[in-house]
Amino acid sequence: MKFQILTLFPELFPGPLGHSITGRALNNNLWSLNAINIRDFATDKHKTVDDVPFGGGAGMVMKPDVIERALLSFPEQGRRVYMSPRGTPLTQNLVKELSKESTLTILCGRYEGVDQRVLDAYGFEEISIGDYVLTGGEMAAHILIDATVRLIPDVLGNETTTDEESFSNGLLEYPHYTRPANWTDASGQDHPVPEILTSGHHGKIGKWRQDQSLELTRNRRPDLLSDK
């Protein structure tokens, strides 16, 4: 899978994506990344990429002609995505859908955003990672790429599975525990592992985990149960 990133800060890539599981997968050519500097496609001597908004208002808007030249600088664009707080929420189902694409082109905005005309002209799909505003789309792009890359075949290997993770079945994931079986914290308080998990009874463990997932989802994200 190939990611084409349109950004004013190409040095931010791969960033954290170059480490751990995603970094190993990148080194093993299971996915690739190309960060294109939008500023390279400005034509004036000051390399101007933004201008004041029509109609007035604070901030600056990224210019459509410069973005277009950056976009058309590479032939394989695939699905075009613009990271935006007004976009479709990034969910696990959407991540699964994106992971099936051969190429994703991700536009990272800055300032007050980008000229709407270039989004419309080239059919950019707006995607949001949450109801808040960042200084730019690069960190949002990191999140989208990380969530997507880990679903590419052979990326996770035998380290973990996505079958029982949060949102894989529409529920939050159950709690996890490891050794020691009884942990004593710094204040002297004992914290034993739930007894069922040391019983060796896989059927009962499976039911306990399902019950825990339902309870956590009911308490923390009841909206996920609205269609169940």
Describe the structure.
- By secondary structure, this protein is α/β, with parallel strands linked by helices.
- The protein has 2 domains: 148 residues, 3-Layer(aba) Sandwich (Alpha/beta knot), CATH 3.40.1280.10; 66 residues, Orthogonal Bundle (Trp Operon Repressor, Chain A), CATH 1.10.1270.
- The chain is built from 6 helices and 9 strands.
- It has a 5-stranded parallel beta sheet with strand order 2-1-6-5-7.
- The protein is elongated, with a radius of gyration of 22 Å.
Outline:
This protein is of the alpha/beta class and 228 residues long.
Q: Report the portion of residues in β strands.
A: 15-25%
CATH topology of the largest domain: Alpha/beta knot
Coarse shape = elongated
Low-confidence residue ranges: none
Lateral arrangement of strands in the main beta sheet? 2-1-6-5-7
In DSSP terms (H or I, runs of 4 or more residues), the helix count works out at 6
Q: CATH homologous superfamily of the largest domain - what is it? A: SPOUT methyltransferase, trefoil knot domain
Distance between the termini: 33 Å
CATH class of the largest domain: Alpha Beta
Overall mean pLDDT stands at 94
Element order: H for helix, E for strand: EHEEEHEHEHEHEEH
Strand tally, please?
9
SS content category = alpha/beta
